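Duplicate of #3305? Posting structure anyway:
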């Protein structure tokens, strides 16, 4: 009987990349392929979904422990990096909009460069001029 060599569980960018490569698999299969499983004494393979999901949360930089950041409020700090999501969207998070003092409904013109995006805020016309 040949034993499958257990791989070290992936973390960080390597985990995110592997999960993206395995997009057609179930979450249990993704966890197994990323090394999040154990083998019991009886040779039964058990997937550890909690460790896998926690590693994904950590890899995405989401803070769930309630740790306070420097301004005394919860939430993520801006890393100034974003990834294209699986649906092709770019999401600019609340950390950036708060820092820029933006509000719901603020409008921007988008101009595209070769590998960059420029946003220019459109000035609102007051309806009661």
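Output from current build:
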């Amino acid at each position: 009987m040949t034993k499958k060599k257990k791989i070290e569980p992936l973390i960080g960018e390597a985990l995110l990349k592997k999960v993206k490569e395995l997009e057609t698999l179930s979450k249990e299969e993704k966890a197994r392929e990323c090394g999040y499983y154990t083998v019991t004494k009886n040779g039964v393979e058990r997937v550890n979904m909690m460790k896998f999901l926690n590693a994904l949360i950590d890899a995405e930089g989401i803070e769930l422990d309630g740790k306070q950041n420097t301004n005394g409020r919860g939430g993520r700090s801006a890393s100034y990096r974003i990834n294209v999501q699986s649906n092709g969207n770019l999401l600019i998070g609340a950390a950036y909009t708060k820092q820029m003092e933006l509000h719901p409904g603020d409008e921007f013109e988008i101009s595209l460069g070769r590998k960059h995006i420029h946003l220019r805020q459109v000035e609102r016309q007051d309806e009661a001029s």
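Confirmed duplicate; merging threads. Helices lie at 12-21, 27-33, 49-60, 94-99. The radius of gyration is 21 Å.
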